[in-house]
Amino acid sequence: MIIGCHLSVSKGFEAMGKEALSIGANTFQFxxxxxxxxxxxxxxxxxxxxxxKLMEENNFGxxxxxxxxxxxPCSKDEKIRRFALSTMNDDLKxxxxxPNNLYNFHPGSHxxxxxxxxxxxxxxxxxxxxxxxxxxxxxLETMAGKGSEVxxxxxxxxxxxxxxxxxxxxxxxxxxxxxxxxxxxIVDNLENVLDEFDRIIGLERLKxxxxxxxxxxxxxxxxxxxxxxxxxxxxxxxxxxINHPALKDLPYYLETPNEIDGYTEEIRLLRSLHxx
Length: 276
Ligand code: FE
Ligand code: FE
Ligand code: ZN
What we know:
The chain is an alpha/beta fold. Helix content is 38%, strand content 13%.
């Protein structure tokens, strides 16, 4: 099973690899820069090389870079859209130092302009930042639908991909807390939800899972993560999710409210429930 959690990038790349190993993980997620935006740290090639070696030696799965939360490609404000462009541009260039990995972002909030306008602006953004010879796969995260978030319906993600020129660079990251909060019943109707995902987007686009329980109930549109098994989704549903034939080989990233000890425990628990 490929599983890890969100780690702090502040100590460097090799340090994240070592920390992942120390908690029983074989992948991890990190923010490309301060989650609230700002400048990214200078790339240290030696540090990246050490991480690459560590990942090879320990059979790591793909690692997942997460864009800052403040990135909003479908803002009404042109300045914010321009910030999204320059940030993602820079992030995708830097990702090539660690080729063939994953980059996830929140599609954005349309802030009253309407879903259709939001989708149009997000695709426009992608058509400016994606480029032919990049090796990174860019993932749209499934959202809970709080406020004016775009991407809480599979149809919206599909429309963004449809309007993007370099579709082979695009995938989806399914966040279990978010889809549950968005109203997809992965607890009692996992099969139907996956059928729907396959019919609308295509399961071949699903590249990663954010594995989080939810503090709230199905369809609440809240987005409050909970520890695994302590929320509305529950441990039995997680056991079915991680063993589903369409999901069991994907990389899993925990974003639960935990310190490192809690993550270690959740990784151990999920590994114990995962069947080959
Ligand atoms: Fe996210
Ligand atoms: Fe997430
Ligand atoms: Zn969330």
